[in-house]
Design brief:
Helices cover about 75% and strands about 0% of the residues. The protein has 19 helices and no strands. Helix 11 crosses helix 19. The longest helix has about 35 residues. The chain is globular, with a radius of gyration of 21 Å. Bound molecules: phenylalanine. The site of phenylalanine has 15 residues, from helix 1, helix 2, helix 11 and helix 15.
Length: about 450
Amino acid sequence: MDQRKMHGVWGNRWTFILAATGSAVGLGNIWKFPYITGENGGGAFVLVYLVCIALVGIPVMMAEVLIGRRGRMSPINSMRYVTREAGLHGAWTAIGWMGVVAGLMIMAFYSVVAGWALNYVLLAATGQLSSLSGAAAGELFGGFLGDTNRLLVFHSLFSLLTFAVVAAGVTRGLGMVARILMPFLFAVLLVLLVYGVVEGNFSAAFGFLFDFKFDKLSMSGVLVALGHAFFTLSLGMGAIMAYGAYMPEHANVSRTIITVGVLDTAVALIAGLAIFPVVFANPGMEPGSGPGLMFVSLPVAFGSMPAGEIFATLFFLLVAVAAWSSAVSLIEPGAAWLVETGKLKRAPATFLLTLVAWCGGVGCVLSNNWLGDNPDGLHIFESLDFLTSQIMLPLGGLFIAIFVGWLMRRAIVVSEMDAEEHPLFDIWLFIVRFVSPALIAVVMIASLYDKLVS
Ligand code: PHE
């Protein structure tokens, strides 16, 4: 039987939008975007990031969905299908393989940070975050990072939760999360934004995020911005390809993807506009303080809000849920492939992959140097983040753009995009052929060069 026919399909276009948004919106938006913006000097970084979303992220996302929808299988097998169809060498399937590996590498540190969020749910619910000063919040976070057992417990709990959804099958597991909890998260972020406007130093935050001071941005910062465009849209590793495989026959790919991209960017910018007013209103806090930024600044904001404990609990819970719906898509490409081989059922396949990622996470926790406390350590955390966001995802995206732009038959691309005669189609194809690959290549080569000479 044709394997392509066995695959389930999302109910409608909106289910795909919600699932893809569930994958895209996660720690990348709320935790990572603000802190890397802080580390890279603010405005200029944000501008480069937005350009990368528009000229690389969204166009490549369309290309990725299109391959998934054509192949209707896991990324590895979809790549195999479209490669054969185009009469090309099987080596192109490597895009699928690299994606599965990248997904597990990301999951390793992702589940540790999601575990931080779970810990903060507990701290908030038991009143331990109330009326903290900036310094006390920093100490609390530092103390937690030194508590290996606690880190491992929450990392494991989060891994288990992810396992449960993927094992049940993502088309079933995700509907509620996406439909109800995502809008809720959006609402709580808006509350935090209002708090920032009223109580924080909003004008300083706004200036920091949107004044384009290019002297603050290095070449490696540009690569961080490009890499983050991939990370935040879940691109370049097959997650969106895997979800595209469940997309109904007739659905407007471009409109759908633009919706997802805009929602994702909005969440990141609102998170930045909520966090930085607090940072600039508290003299002890630094925008460039790194991965602890959200965990240190927001408890202070909640602490001085009416009903702050309830909001804090809700907020960290929603962050954990957003991370959960993203983590699912980190495991799904590999799980779908293992199931298709026919050798494993979904549950054991998912278990195996989650276990591999879990071990990586244990490595991150034990090497415990995310915040540079241990400069001679292995830096597993940082290395996994660097290798995936700044190397593997952009490379995956580069190859996907080249494949769809140059090697797939135009008739197939047109029909999978559902874009017959659409005037924007040619513009998109031009971007995917020339602009996105050139930008990725130039940024990667320039920052490599920069590293070598400096
Ligand atoms: N996009 C997710 C986030 O921003 C992370 C992710 C990356 C998920 C790659 C899937 C694939 O949190």
